[in-house]
Amino acid sequence: MTYDLFYWPGLPGRGEFVRLVLEAAGADYREMNRVPAEAGGGMAAMSAYLDGEQGPQIPFAPPFLRDGNLVLAQTPVIVAHLGETLGLAPEAPGDRLFARQIATTTADLVAEAHDVHHPVGVGLYYEDQKPEAARRASEFRESRMPKFLGWYEAILKANPAGSTWLVGDRMSYADLGLFQVWQGLRYAFPRRMAVLAPDFLAISDLAERVAGQPRLAAYLASARRQPFNEDGIFRHYPELDGE
């Protein structure tokens, strides 16, 4: 089975949460923005799905995944489907639901991180909303970041199987999402994270374990891993960072 991932070229963004699950599972997949148009890829192929030309399962926005005849959008839905299909999800029904809850909350955090630099409108440039972004960044740094990170830390410490992973006794897609968020926040807010990190050692340890998984270590060292940049969700604007 080859999965087809549709996302914008040159961005880690929300697509990276999907890539991490695919890479951790050793799954065969294609980045459709890198597939030639004559082979069914490229931006025209993505647009055809978004315009409803490829059937009734119309995605609202990328990322979306083609799994055979199934088309899935929304990052938490995609990663849960992949995790539960590829062996990167808890086995118990209740734990599976909890992992989905974590992934959905991670998506909320990602949206808030994005809105730091685009608090007025996604169609406007950052330069068009700098005063509002500065105000939003202050609240995000001081209140929202510790609130979200404290929740993850509490989950790790409360896990009956131990504080190694968020749910159960093995790595799941929920852990991969937390890893990406942790890395993204460190990139976007290095000064703030330097202050906060000592209070969240369980998360820091989890991120190291994820990065040390053989498949993920190889992926993170490869050209397939797209670096954070100022066109993505986690952007480093020094004026928005602070202790």
Key words describing this protein structure:
243 residues; alpha+beta; Glutaredoxin; Glutathione S-transferase Yfyf (Class Pi), Chain A, domain 2; 2 domains; 53% helix; 7% strand; globular
Describe the fold and architecture:
Strands 2-1-3-4 form a four-stranded mixed sheet, covered by helices on one side. Helix 6 crosses helix 7 and helix 6 crosses helix 8 (201-212). The longest helix is centred in the middle third of the chain and has 29 residues, at 130-158. The protein has 243 residues and is of the alpha+beta class. The protein has nine helices and four strands, in the order βαβαββααααααα. It has helices at residues 15-25, 42-50, 75-86, 93-117, 130-158, 173-188, 190-196, 201-212, 214-220; strands at residues 2-6, 28-31, 64-67, 70-73. It is globular. The chain has two domains: 2-86, 3-Layer(aba) Sandwich (Glutaredoxin), CATH 3.40.30.10; 93-212, Glutathione S-transferase Yfyf (Class Pi), Chain A, domain 2, CATH 1.20.1050.10. The N and C termini lie far apart (47 Å). Helix 1 (15-25) links the parallel strand 1 and strand 2 (28-31). The mean pLDDT is 96.
